[in-house]
Amino acid sequence: MQQSTLTLPETIDLVEPTPRRLHHVGPNWFASVMGTGIVATAAASLPIQVPGLRGFAQVVWVLAAALLAVLVLLVGSFWVRHPAVARGHARNASMAHFYGAAPMALLTVGAGALLVGGDLIGADVALRLDWTLWILGTAGGLVTAATIPFMMVTQHDVGPDAAFGGWLMPVVPPMVSAATGALLIPHIASETGRATMLYACFAMFGLSMIAALIITTMIWSRLVHYGTSGTARVATLWIVLGPLGQSVTAAGLLGSSAATAIDPQIAGGLQIFAVLFGVPVWGFAVLWIVLATSLTVRTLRRGMPFALTWWSLTFPVGTFVTGTTQLALHTGLPALRIAAAISYVCLLATWCLVATRTVHGSVRGELLGPR
To answer: b or e along 70-108 (b: 16 or more beta carbons within 10 Å of the residue's beta carbon)?
Structure first.
């Protein structure tokens, strides 16, 4: 089978010479916030709780929030100091898609504030922080969902074997907004406001899900016709798991919140939808995990190098955990409770590995300098 020769930039390909390495932090770094934040949020809602788990989730959430603040400063500084190079990222057919990571980082940290941060900063402050980050993340996600595909059509040079998991990054943020927005519905005082929020979240659910299905089909076609790249880009196959797990999560959370927002008859239908939609999608997610695991192991045996694309192994797995948790809550099946716990252990192990390698690579300067 023919192997693709395209490569994905591990940090930034188009940069100006500068002695300050930290100014070369690009939008793909926000994936580390997503992958860290989901460890906290998944732990908070896990159907099987153990002593110390909530405290651990709080520590991880603080780490994710601090990392987000640092990256906002660094990436903002890069835009101010090197605007031409920063705009060049948007014209890069590989890097541009990772601008979708920033909105999802905001949304993940915001959800963590509501789920675990209240014990540390106070419930009122946590709620206001979540609202702020949700609004910013939702606005940013809608922008990326509209502009990046437009640029792909009008500006990017896209080859027949170009489809990869990163194509999903700009269109998945609205799905994350749908899931995290469901957590805010009970905190809206107005009945009309709750209903508006619910239906807005479902609209974003559809926006993201249909786009993700189209792109996933293109990725599958690319794999069949061209194989894998044989590089760190293979890790981005795990991104496909993101919209799958997040859609199951969103359907479950919106179904649970519907009773406080709309007519009981429609709300009951949405509860049923959470199961009728969630179980089949969960089944395909399991299939994709098997496929992505097989291809990742195959590439690792052939010497796949470490890169920031390895963070693609964390957030998507985290959404599978939260999606499994929602199905466990809606169905009451012990098997799904156990599956959620097992998948969380896998998420934790993967996060520890990728975080450790990232710190090591950053200290050595392998991930921070221009390439």
So the answer is: ebeebbeebeeebeebbebbbebbbbbbbbbbbbbbbbb
Summarised one tens digit per residue, pLDDT across range 262-297 is 999 999 999 999 999 999 999 999 999 999 999 999
Q: What sign does the CA torsion over 75, 77, 79, 83 have? A: negative
Number of helical (H) and strand (E) elements in the chain, helices listed first: 12, 0
What does pTM read for this prediction?
A: 0.90
The full DSSP string for 316-332 is HHHHHHHHHHHHHHHH-
Burial 42-64 (b: 16+ CB within 10 A, else e): bbbbbbeeeeeebeebbebbbbb
Work out the average pLDDT over 3-30: 51
DSSP assignment of 224-261 equals HHH---SSGGGGGGGGGHHHHHHHHHHHHHHHHHGGGT
What residue type is assigned to position 80 of the chain? V
**pLDDT band for position 371 (50/70/90)?**
very low
Structural tokens at position 14: 């188009």
Confidence (pLDDT) at 327: 98
In whole angstroms, what is the distance from residue 193 CA to residue 190 CA? 5
State the amino acid at position 67 in one-letter form: L
Report residue 255 CA to chain centroid gap.
21
Cα distance between residue 196 and residue 67, in whole Å: 33
The C-alpha atoms of residue 103 and residue 286 are separated, in whole angstroms, by 26
Going 120 to 122 to 124 to 128, the CA torsion angle's sign is negative
- Reported as a single tens digit per residue, the pLDDT across 132-184 is 999 999 999 999 999 999 999 998 888 888 899 999 999 999 999 999 999 99
State the Cα–Cα distance between residues 6 and 165, nearest whole angstrom. Answer: 13
Q: Tokens standing for 67?
A: 């990392």
End-to-end, the C-alpha distance of the chain in Å comes to 30
